[in-house]
Structure formats: structure tokens, C-alpha cells
Amino acid sequence: MADPTPVRVKLLKAHRHAGADHQEGAVLTMSPATATWLKNNRIAVDADTATEAATVVTVKPKEAHA
After folding, report:
1. Chain centroid to CA 53
2. Predicted confidence band at 56 (pLDDT cuts at 50, 70, 90)?
3. Distances from the Cα of 52 to the Cαs of 10, 12, 25, 48, in angstroms?
4. What distance in Å separates the CA atoms of residue 61 and residue 59, rounded to the nearest whole number?
5. Which of 18, 20, 47, 54 would staple 8 via disulfide (CB 3.0–4.6 Å)?
């Protein structure tokens, strides 16, 4: 069985999980199942159909680790 086609989502708020710290407004590519979970939990929207007016983002550079 072929892998499902990856989809792009835009984060509505910062999201952390094991090994990653994603900023609000980040556009990520992932499996359809993960994308659906994020959208159902109002963490992300489809990146290709999202309007800029829906999210105002201030991106800060990641601080260096001590």
C-alpha cells in the first residue's frame, strides 16, 4: 500500500511535542492523519486555503540553548 500524500498545515498556535517546538504560524508538511488531528483540535488549518487575515504572526528567533 502506498503512503498517503503529505498535506501542509499552518499552525494557529505554538505546539510542542517530543523533539520539536513549532512556532505559531509555522507551515508544516505531515501525514493526513496527523493533520486531521491538529485541525480537529483547532491547532492548525489547511496551509493552502488559510487566509493571512485569520492569523497575525510575530516570529521571534529561537533563543540559543545555554
Report:
1. 17
2. very low
3. 10, 11, 10, 11
4. 7
5. 47
CB 57 within 8 A of CB 12: no
Q: Where are the domains of the chain?
A: 7-54
Closest to 37 measured CA to CA, from 5, 11, 59: 11
Q: What angle do CA 13, 22, 48 make, to 5 degrees?
A: 70
| pLDDT tens string 12-50 | 988 888 888 888 988 989 889 988 988 899 989 998 876
- Residue 59, pLDDT > 70, answer no
> Does the 7-54 domain belong in CATH 2.40.128?
no
Pairwise pLDDT comparison (58 vs 46), residue with the higher score: 46
Burial of 58 (0-12, 13-18, 19+ CB in 10 A): exposed
